[in-house]
Write a structure and sequence with these properties.
ATP binding; Dephospho-CoA kinase; P-loop_NTPase; dephospho-CoA kinase activity; 196 residues; Rossmann fold; EC 2.7.1.24; two-stranded antiparallel ribbon; 9 helices; alpha/beta; 5-stranded parallel beta sheet
Length: 196
C-alpha cells in the first residue's frame, strides 16, 4: 500500500511524515532526496550549475539563489524540474524496491496533485491547517517574505481542493497529540485486511 502524503507549504507535512516513521512506517521524503541530490556530493550539482550558473558552490546548490532565479520565471522553473524530477523518481524507485516487503509505505510528495504524483499512489493523505496558522508558520521561516510566500502559493493547488481530493485529511492546526492520533488511525485503517 502506497500512501501519498502531501500538503501546501507550512501545513506541517514534515512533522506528520516523522509521525508515520515513528509508527514504523517506511517514509520516502522527496524534499530530503532533493537535498541529497543538491548537497556537496549531490548528483545534480554540476547539471544545475550548467543550467543556472552561479547558484552552486563547494557546499552544493545555494537553494536561496536558485529559488530567486526560478520562482518568478516559469520557463526556468520548468528547466529545473526537468533535471530534478527524474532524479527524485529514481530515488523513489530505489526506496520502493528496498521496502517491497512492507505492508504500508508513505511517499512524502510536495506537489502530489500539481505534478501528477497522485497517479502513482493507492491512497492520499493531505496535511492541512487553517490559513492563518499556515501564514504564521511560513513567515516565521528565515528569508521568507510576503511576496515569496504569495509566489509559492500561486504554484500550489488550493488547500480546499487538495482536501476535497484526499482519502484522509490530517489537521495540524491543533495539538501534536491530536495530529499523532490522526496518524495512528490512518495506519490502523490501512493495515486492516481488505484496505489494500
Amino acid at each position: 500500500m502506497k500512501l501519498g502524503l502531501t500538503g501546501s507549504i507550512g501545513m506541517g507535512k514534515s512533522t506528520v511524515a516523522a509521525m508515520f516513521a515513528a509508527q514504523g512506517v517506511p517514509v520516502f521524503d522527496a524534499d530530503a532526496a532533493v537535498h541529497r541530490l543538491q548537497g556537496p556530493e549531490g548528483a545534480l550539482v554540476a547539471e544545475i550549475e550548467t543550467h543556472f550558473p552561479g547558484t552552486t558552490s563547494a557546499r552544493g546548490v545555494d537553494r536561496g539563489a536558485l529559488a530567486e532565479r526560478v520562482l518568478a520565471a516559469p520557463e526556468a522553473l520548468r528547466r529545473l524540474e526537468a533535471l530534478v524530477h527524474p532524479a527524485v523518481a529514481r530515488e523513489r524507485e530505489s526506496f520502493l524496491a528496498a521496502n517491497a516487503a512492507a505492508p504500508l509505505v508513505v511517499l512524502d510528495i510536495p506537489l502530489l496533485f500539481e505534478k501528477e504524483g497522485w497517479r502513482d499512489v493507492d491512497r492520499i493523505a493531505v496535511v492541512s491547517a487553517p490559513a492563518a496558522v499556515q501564514r504564521d508558520r511560513v513567515l516565521a521561516r528565515p528569508g521568507m517574505t510576503e511576496e515569496k510566500f504569495a509566489r509559492i502559493l500561486a504554484q500550489q493547488l488550493p488547500d480546499a481542493e487538495k482536501r476535497a481530493r484526499a482519502d484522509f485529511v490530517i489537521d495540524t492546526g491543533g495539538s501534536l497529540e491530536q495530529t499523532r492520533d490522526s496518524v495512528r488511525r490512518i495506519v490502523a485503517c490501512l493495515s486492516e485486511p481488505g484496505n489494500s
